[in-house]
């Protein structure tokens, strides 16, 4: 393969090198590139900065002078108001209760399936993989009506949900997130696991290690970068989802963070500055996750590609 | 809502573990192992079948019925009637199809190549590369509420940024970005492109990191300039990633929902911005639902999607089957 | 292969491990959390508790409902457990809500919208409640609260009229007079336009498309009368009827006086332009007042009934949507819930509510109107004088028909109004899908 052909030219270098760390030949026109990239990045940030600017201004100011004007008083008042008026802490917690178990469940389930299809040679592996992957590609609207009916039929014990049903319970939302997102993660993880050399598990088998130990002690730790990448993407998707709870949760107090915003969005009267502040606050958790896992994000998605 | 897959299908692993295992027979799978494997595959499979495929199949069945979504006894079989109605007597249907196609073409021709371009620019030793990446990927991280709000305060005809600037430059000018049915689809597409670019960039960047740097350097030493290196060496080497980018683009375009829904005020399809996914929502969610009708629309979308994914899946997995 | 091995075998940096580990830790905590919070729930059939589903998530209605339920709790010794869902989500999920495990009493709207769920058996009849509260309500209100089967299903709380709102000071400054007839109205609009105003404030962008229906309803009511309007709403006559075309003709006549760029504007911004004296008039509901925090400004707001078009109909119909309560189909605590409904149907409850939320008008005959502001007083008089009361297009008709067929059609048409033949044909083509008899 290509590797053999090019190996003499340059020995492989570790990927996560600091910039300029071992630069041999500096490419020309770097300034131009910076200029271009900085412009684009700024352009991309502009809409967000505009929202931040709006959120910092009192409604009285903007309704009088317009939004495209110099500020007469910048304050965090909108943020405190949004925080207090919408019951945001409560809804944040609801979203955590939905997102964290969903992401972990998705990763665990898909790791299991990926382990199965990538490390063992069963006849139905490819069909299975296709079933999982295709499941994630179904439009969510296709599922909602029968799912709602199904949820009304599944009883839950009182300690799990006061609705006594899968319907109107956080568990129901977690379940559909896991089932629906599993396909995507299985796909990524199975590709990732295939890149783990077979010798590793063979050695384990020779040592007489049980399969479950192989899974938990060898394969899962090796998949950490992929987990980080998937955790980022899935957190973003699941946290931001507003579709499933719309039909599957009826108690206002159980709804996720998107509801807090809807509460700010008055039926008749809306204060855009307040909404901007509220909306920006809801974006903080995903931003934190992204920044925390950013280093692994790209390398985790980098799996066995580029050998066409 | 989630999107399609970013990773590349790897070439067949030369040391396929299981074959290796069976050849050398280090230890047969014991009963405990088998039980473990059964659980490991059984539970997720059950969840998938019950929560995803069962409802999907039920929806397909419902698409041949007429039902208001309340009592099961009110489900009436109508055969292909819903499909017939949709194709011949549903005014927003063909506009929605057209908009989906426009969406696809636009996304495939602008933000996708641009994302690839950015990824290529950032895939090198460059100071601040992470800053750039973050800035461009940020729209993907933001919640939809934020995205909706941001573009709302940009496009607002009275107080928005765009019309504000326009008004300052040429007073009296007034563009109704989101209200004009000839314009609003494009306004929404800009918002969508703003997110999509970062997504593609990240996926491609991931793919590029997987290209052996030696390959690129070899091409560079041969005297090829950047563009040639990319077009002749890197791009072909990334065929699997390219396929995925293509699938992601197609799927995102066919299923496009969120941004339009939010910018349309969260009330379903608006003139000029009809999309298949929104028509389904119109018919399924709400006070007087037409489940059969909506399901039929969903099946239409599903068939189109499956055609798109199907080619991809078959192409992807057949290679492994060899 | 170097490539693959490298990815995998690179020793994970400590930071990575801690991050991922931390995440898992947090996850374990969160996995356990629902178990803890779920405990203590399951008050399925507590005879001491009535559950109440409310769509009043805004600060004002929320505290108004709280005042009412608190008074009831004090009076009856029962506990009211309120489940508040924002107005939009409540409406969107109402169908699944009512079939799921709904609260005993829930907020809803009078008209076709109430009758639909009554007909579907998703609500419990309230005839026994009405025996006790019936004396306090007018005949029109009683009709409004009945299903198609003649039984009562609804307990009204308040209503609010739609009219043409304006600022008194603007009319004074410019010497405008309140128009009574259609020709006076169009002449005034023309004059306003000449004076550099947007004559009719308009904003139906985003989720605000419903705001145009007030004008449509009034045009249709004034030109074609109550009976035709209601038949049209209930899907009993064809939308290609000549009379519907007349309504569009009238609308087209005033469309040049509509504020520009309305398709992307929120109604709230449109209302703001009225308050800023950039627009002259607005066809809107009394809830306009919620936008005003300055009392001096509020005192400057007034409204007049939509002008007369056909003398045969005069100004006899008033659009006054009524909000109130219904009882779900299998209430967990029927006795308690009915007690709550009796209380909600009393003058006292209405007084309590209106005390907090002054942008509505009580419907109970004995409700205390002493604290009304002038706008409320005028509203109450207008509604009392009406021969016919309509609810609003999306309440008098199938809401799905209105929101997915009529509204997209009308908003698109308003952008470039023509004779409307294509639009009406388009609407008509979908009518049978929603109204099967």
From TrEMBL, chain A:
Gene Ontology CC, one term: plasma membrane
Subcellular location per the Swiss-Prot or TrEMBL entry: Cell membrane
Record membrane topology: Multi-pass membrane protein
Keyword NADP recorded: no
Segments for region (Disordered): 1-27
TM regions (residue ranges): 35-53, 91-117, 124-144, 164-189, 218-239, 274-293
Domain ABC transmembrane type-1: 92-293
Record-linked InterPro entries: MetI-like, MetI-like_sf
Superkingdom assignment: Bacteria
Biological process, per Gene Ontology: transmembrane transport
Family indicated by similarity: Belongs to the binding-protein-dependent transport system permease family.
Protein's name according to its UniProt entry: Carbohydrate ABC transporter membrane protein 2, CUT1 family
Organism for this UniProt entry: Actinacidiphila glaucinigra
TrEMBL record, chain B:
Gene3D superfamilies linked: MetI-like
GO cellular component: plasma membrane
Alphabetical GO biological process terms: transmembrane transport
Pfam families in alphabetical order: BPD_transp_1
Domain ABC transmembrane type-1: 97-314
Membrane spanning stretches: 35-58, 101-122, 134-154, 185-208, 229-251, 291-314
Major subcellular site: membrane
Localization: Cell membrane
Annotated membrane topology: Multi-pass membrane protein
Assigned keywords, A-Z: Cell membrane, Membrane, Transmembrane, Transmembrane helix, Transport
Region ranges (Disordered): 1-27
Family to which this protein belongs: Belongs to the binding-protein-dependent transport system permease family.
Protein name: Carbohydrate ABC transporter membrane protein 1, CUT1 family
Organism the protein comes from: Actinacidiphila glaucinigra
Higher taxonomy: Bacteria, Bacillati, Actinomycetota, Actinomycetes, Kitasatosporales
TrEMBL record, chain C:
Signal peptide: 1-32
InterPro entries: Bact_solute-bd_prot1, SBP, TAT_signal
Keyword Lipoprotein belongs to the record: no
Keywords: Signal, Sugar transport, Transport
Stored Pfam families: SBP_bac_1
Record protein name field: Multiple sugar transport system substrate-binding protein
Taxonomic lineage from the root: Bacteria, Bacillati, Actinomycetota, Actinomycetes, Kitasatosporales
């Amino acid at each position: 393969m290509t590797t053999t052909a090019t190996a003499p030219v340059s020995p492989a270098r570790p990927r996560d090198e600091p910039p300029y760390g071992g630069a041999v030949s500096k490419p020309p026109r770097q300034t131009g590139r910076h200029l271009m990239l900085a412009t684009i990045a700024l352009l991309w940030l502009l809409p967000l900065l505009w929202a931040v600017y709006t959120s910092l201004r009192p409604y009285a100011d903007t309704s009088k002078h317009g939004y495209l004007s110099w500020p007469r008083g910048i304050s965090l008042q909108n943020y405190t108001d949004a925080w207090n008026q919408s019951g945001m802490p409560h809804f944040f917690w609801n979203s955590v209760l939905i997102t964290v178990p969903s992401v972990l469940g998705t990763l665990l389930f898909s790791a299991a399936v990926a382990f199965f299809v990538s490390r063992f040679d069963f006849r139905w592996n490819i069909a299975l993989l296709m079933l999982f992957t295709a499941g994630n590609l179904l439009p969510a609207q296709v599922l909602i009506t029968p799912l709602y009916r199904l949820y009304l039929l599944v009883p839950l014990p009182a300690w799990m949900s006061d609705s006594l049903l899968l319907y109107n319970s956080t568990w129901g939302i977690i379940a559909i997130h896991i089932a629906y997102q599993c396909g995507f993660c299985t796909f990524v993880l199975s590709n990732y696991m295939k890149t783990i050399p077979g010798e590793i598990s063979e050695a384990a088998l020779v040592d007489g290690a049980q399969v479950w130990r192989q899974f938990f002690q060898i394969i899962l730790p090796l998949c950490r970068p992929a987990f980080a990448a998937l955790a980022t993407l899935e957190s973003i998707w699941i946290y931001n989802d507003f579709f499933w709870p719309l039909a599957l949760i009826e108690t206002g107090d159980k709804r996720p963070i998107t509801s807090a915003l809807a509460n700010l969005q008055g039926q008749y009267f809306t204060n855009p500055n307040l909404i901007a502040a509220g909306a920006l606050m809801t974006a903080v958790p995903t931003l934190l996750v992204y920044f925390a896992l950013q280093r692994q994000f790209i390398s985790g998605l980098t799996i066995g590609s580029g050998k066409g | 809502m989630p999107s399609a897959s970013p990773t590349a299908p790897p070439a067949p692993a030369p040391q396929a573990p299981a074959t290796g295992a069976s050849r050398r027979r280090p230890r047969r799978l014991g009963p405990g192992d088998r039980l473990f494997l059964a659980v490991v595959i059984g539970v997720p499979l059950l969840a998938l079948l019950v929560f995803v495929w069962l409802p999907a199949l039920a929806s397909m069945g419902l698409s041949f019925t007429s039902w208001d979504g309340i009592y099961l006894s009110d489900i009436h079989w109508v055969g292909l009637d819903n499909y017939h109605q949709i194709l011949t007597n549903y005014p927003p249907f063909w506009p929605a199809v057209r908009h989906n196609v426009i969406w696809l073409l636009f996304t495939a021709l602008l933000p996708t190549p641009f994302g690839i371009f950015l990824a290529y620019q950032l895939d090198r030793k460059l100071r601040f590369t992470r800053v750039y990446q973050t800035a461009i990927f940020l729209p993907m991280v933001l919640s939809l509420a934020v995205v909706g709000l941001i573009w709302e305060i940009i496009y607002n005809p009275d107080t928005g940024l765009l019309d504000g600037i326009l008004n300052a430059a040429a007073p009296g000018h007034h563009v109704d970005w989101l209200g004009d049915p000839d314009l609003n689809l494009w306004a929404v597409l800009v918002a969508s492109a703003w997110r999509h670019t970062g997504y593609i960039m990240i996926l491609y960047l991931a793919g590029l990191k997987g290209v052996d740097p030696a390959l690129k350097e070899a091409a560079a030493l041969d005297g090829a300039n950047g563009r040639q290196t990319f077009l002749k060496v890197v791009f072909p080497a990334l065929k699997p990633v390219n396929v995925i980018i293509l699938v992601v683009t197609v799927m995102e375009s066919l299923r496009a929902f969120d941004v339009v829904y939010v910018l349309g005020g969260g009330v379903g399809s608006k003139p000029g911005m009809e999309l298949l996914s929104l028509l389904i929502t119109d018919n399924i969610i709400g006070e007087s639902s037409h489940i059969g009708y909506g399901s039929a629309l969903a099946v239409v979308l599903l068939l189109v999607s499956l055609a798109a994914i199907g080619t991809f899946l078959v192409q992807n997995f057949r290679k492994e089957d060899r | 292969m170097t490539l693959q091995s490298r990815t995998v075998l690179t020793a994970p940096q400590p930071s990575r491990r801690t991050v991922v580990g931390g995440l898992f830790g947090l996850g374990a905590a969160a996995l356990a959390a629902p178990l803890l919070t779920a405990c203590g729930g399951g008050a399925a059939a507590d005879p001491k508790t009535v559950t109440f589903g409310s769509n009043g998530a805004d600060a004002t209605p929320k505290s108004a409902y709280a005042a009412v339920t608190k008074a009831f709790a004090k009076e009856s010794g029962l506990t009211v457990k309120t489940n508040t869902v924002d107005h939009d989500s409540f409406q969107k999920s109402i169908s699944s809500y009512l079939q799921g495990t709904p609260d005993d009493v829930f907020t809803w709207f009078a008209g076709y919208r109430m009758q639909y769920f009554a007909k579907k058996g998703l609500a419990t009849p309230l005839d026994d409640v009405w025996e006790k509260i019936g004396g306090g309500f007018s005949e029109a209100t009683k009709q409004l609260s009945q299903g198609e089967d003649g039984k009562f299903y609804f307990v009204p709380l308040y209503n609010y009229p739609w009219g043409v709102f304006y600022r008194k000071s603007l009319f004074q400054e410019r010497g405008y007079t309140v128009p009574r007839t259609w020709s006076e109205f169009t002449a005034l609009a023309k004059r306003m336009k000449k004076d550099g105003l947007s004559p009719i404030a308009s904003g139906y962008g985003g989720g605000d498309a419903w705001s145009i229906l007030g004008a449509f309803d009034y045009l249709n009511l004034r030109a074609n009368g109550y009976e035709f309007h209601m038949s049209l709403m209930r899907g009993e006559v064809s939308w290609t009827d000549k009379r519907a075309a007349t309504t569009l003709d009238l609308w087209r006549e005033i469309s040049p006086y509509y504020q520009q760029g309305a398709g992307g504007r929120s109604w709230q911004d449109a209302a703001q332009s009225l308050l800023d004296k950039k627009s002259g008039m607005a066809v809107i509901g009394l809830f306009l007042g919620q936008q005003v925090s300055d009392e001096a400004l509020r005192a400057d707001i007034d409204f007049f009934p939509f002008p007369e078009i056909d003398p045969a109909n005069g100004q006899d119909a008033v659009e006054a949507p009524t909000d109130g309560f219904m009882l779900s189909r299998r209430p967990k605590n029927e006795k308690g819930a009915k007690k709550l409904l009796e209380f909600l149907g009393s003058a006292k409850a209405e007084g309590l509510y209106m005390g907090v939320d002054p942008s509505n008008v009580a419907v109970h005959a004995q409700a205390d109107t002493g604290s009304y502001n002038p706008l409320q007083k005028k509203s109450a008089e207008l509604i009392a004088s009406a021969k016919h009361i309509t609810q609003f297009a999306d309440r008098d008709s199938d809401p799905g028909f209105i929101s997915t067929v009529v509204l997209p059609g009308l908003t698109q048409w308003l952008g470039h109004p023509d004779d409307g033949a294509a639009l009406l044909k388009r609407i008509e083509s979908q009518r049978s899908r929603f109204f099967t008899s």
